[in-house]
Write a structure and sequence with these properties.
306 residues; alpha+beta; Sortase, Chain: A; eight-stranded mixed beta barrel; two-stranded antiparallel sheet; 7 helices; 37% helix; 20% strand; globular
């Protein structure tokens, strides 16, 4: 009779096979993870390069103006004028506690000149890239400077860049149920909170009072108007709370109820007290601290002119 091998031989053989296949599975999982990481990095790079190139094409800043002046042999005084305007203190220094008014026309005009010296958007060139462009958002001394579009749905720009390229960065977009010119009582703007800190990733920073104190206003540019967005509230909002996000208020009571809600829920204490005639803009982005949650940043619109 053939010699029988010990019973533990089969056990050891089986254990080695299991370990072998577990090792293979781990290698495959690591390779898959690396592929995902590389793909994400490539998408981030592609998206950020697209927006960086767009800014070079359609946006004028003090840096680009100085570069053009250096290349020109003639000086017409524009550089010194720009330096004088950028030396004007930011409007944020004029916001006082419980500010109710939108300040004087003279102060608004000065702020308009100052911010236009920091950034000037060429809308004809921008609309040549995408005819659905509605505005441009700018936050001073931050990375928030992007075009905003509006289409006939809220899906396309979740994963398409401004030039139509499919990319997870997407494009900031106005809710299709809103008017594109901010005439509604509350205009909703959506954008991703990307892991590389692009798009609206800076918004949750408003959970810190010090960040609000440093950046209490944003700016919105349109071809025919510039708005200062004086921030009122930043708060977490879940799927069950989206009913709070009305486009137009049925009555002054609804307006006041909205203001009370957002001020009560805010992470920061705003210096602004909205009035019954104020219109708002609400930026919405992902809130990774809660499942299916979003972070909402609300500001009142102050038209500065063009």
């Amino acid at each position: 009779m053939p010699e029988r091998k010990p019973s533990n031989y089969n056990f050891n053989f089986l254990a080695r096979q299991i370990l072998r296949w577990v090792g293979i599975a781990l290698v495959i999982a690591m390779l898959a993870m690396m592929i995902i990481i590389v793909r994400n990095e490539r998408n981030y790079q592609q998206g950020n390069d697209t927006y960086a190139q767009l800014i070079r094409q359609v946006v004028t800043t003090p840096e680009t103006t100085e570069s053009a002046d250096d290349e020109s042999a003639e000086s017409d005084g524009r550089s010194s004028e720009s330096q004088a305007l950028t030396a004007i203190p930011p409007f944020s220094t004029q916001l006082t506690t419980n500010s109710t008014s939108s300040t004087s026309n003279e102060a608004n005009q000065m702020d308009l000149k100052r911010v236009r010296s920091l950034i000037d958007v060429n809308f004809p060139a921008l609309k040549a890239v995408n005819s659905e462009v509605a505005a441009w958002v700018f936050s001073e001394k931050t990375t928030l400077s992007y075009p905003i579009v509006r289409s006939d749905n809220n899906e396309r720009y979740l994963n398409h860049l401004i030039d139509g390229t499919e990319n997870p960065l997407g494009t900031l977009f106005i809710d299709y149920r809103n008017q594109p010119d901010f005439r509604d009582d509350n205009t909703l703007i959506y954008g991703h909170n990307m892991e590389d800190n692009s798009m609206l990733a800076s918004l949750p920073e408003y959970k810190r009072q010090t960040y609000y104190d440093d950046h209490p206003v944003l700016y919105l540019f349109r071809p025919d108007q510039t708005f200062r967005v004086e921030l009122v509230s930043g708060f977490d909002i879940g799927p069950d709370d989206m009913g709070l996000m009305q486009f137009n208020f049925a009555s002054p009571r609804d307006h006041d109820a909205f203001v009370l809600q957002i001020r009560t829920r805010s992470w920061f204490k705003s210096r602004v007290v909205p009035q019954s005639t104020d219109r708002f803009v609400t930026f919405l982005t992902c809130n990774y601290e809660s499942n299916e949650g979003r972070f909402a940043l609300v500001g009142r619109l102050v038209p500065l002119g063009n």
